[in-house]
């Protein structure tokens, strides 16, 4: 396997990676993101996602990561993409990695083209993220949605960049099975999706377990940031507000945990009537 060594922080390629690792604006400008870890690299390979570069931690080189880098390069060649492999100085690798002491492999992948708002998307179930700024929560929400069968993820402008490396890491490959729409405000979402807009709102509404019928037809589940919850703009477009009844000793659930409850209750109800 032919690889390029990078040992200096002044290397242009490294400087670009560093910008992308830290800035959503750089991700949009450069048109690519970074995904760290063996699981993500294998998920990209299995999903046949074109990989522009494989970045290996020079001091942690082993047969497993070498073989995976070669397999990714071979698969990308079949798709007409020339994958470059880099051995990056250990300290430089840590500077761009979203986690400490990771597996020592990272991949560079292009952002997908913005999907057209066709009937398939319009009539799909959707998870809408309204101002969710924590990268770990955002990634877990994507992972939870795809696991529950909800594959369209839309997000407001105040939500964390869904293609940021930390979000990619938290989602653990779920991006590759999702359709992701960013920069969508609630009023715009109302024009893009035909589903019934359901607001997950701890402040009131109907008990998710007691209320009947909300799961019928496509739904757009709206989840807000921890603390403030859903914005007024999101609540204005909601067709129904639903809450999860919890014990009084706990004020609320983490937004990712709340989404898991809502989306899998939806899945359970639909499976029950098949």
UniProtKB/TrEMBL annotation:
Gene3D superfamilies: 3.30.1330.30, 3.40.1280.10. InterPro entries: Alpha/beta_knot_MTases, Ribosomal_eL30-like_sf, rRNA_Methyltransferase, SpoU_MeTrfase, tRNA_m1G_MTases_N. Keywords: Methyltransferase, Transferase. It comes from the Bacteria. Residues 126-264 form the tRNA/rRNA methyltransferase SpoU type domain. The keyword Ribonucleoprotein does not apply. This is RNA methyltransferase. It comes from Mesosutterella multiformis.
């Amino acid at each position: 396997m032919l690889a390029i060594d990078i040992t200096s922080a002044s290397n242009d390629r490294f400087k670009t990676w560093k910008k992308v690792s830290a800035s959503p604006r750089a991700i949009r400008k450069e048109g690519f993101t970074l995904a760290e870890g063996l699981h993500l690299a294998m998920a990209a390979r299995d999903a046949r996602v074109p990989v522009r570069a494989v970045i290996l931690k020079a001091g942690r080189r082993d047969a497993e990561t070498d073989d995976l880098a070669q397999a990714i390069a071979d698969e990308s060649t079949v798709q007409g993409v020339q994958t470059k492999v880099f051995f990056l100085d250990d300290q430089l690798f840590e500077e761009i990695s979203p986690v400490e002491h990771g597996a020592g492999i990272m991949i560079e992948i292009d952002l997908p083209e913005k999907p057209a708002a066709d009937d398939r998307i319009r009539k799909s179930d959707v998870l809408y993220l309204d101002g969710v700024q924590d990268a770990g929560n955002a990634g877990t929400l994507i992972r939870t949605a795809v696991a529950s069968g909800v594959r369209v993820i839309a997000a407001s402008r105040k939500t964390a960049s869904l293609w940021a490396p930390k979000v990619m890491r938290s989602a653990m490959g779920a991006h590759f099975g999702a359709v992701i729409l960013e920069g969508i405000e609630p009023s715009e979402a109302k024009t893009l999706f035909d589903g019934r807009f359901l607001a997950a709102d701890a402040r009131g509404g109907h008990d998710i377990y007691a209320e009947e019928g909300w799961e019928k037809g496509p739904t757009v589940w709206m989840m807000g940031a921890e603390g403030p919850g859903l914005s007024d703009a999101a609540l204005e477009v909601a067709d129904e507000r639903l809450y999860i009844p919890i014990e009084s000793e706990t004020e609320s659930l983490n937004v990712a945990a709340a989404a898991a409850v809502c989306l899998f209750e939806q899945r359970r109800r639909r499976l029950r009537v098949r």
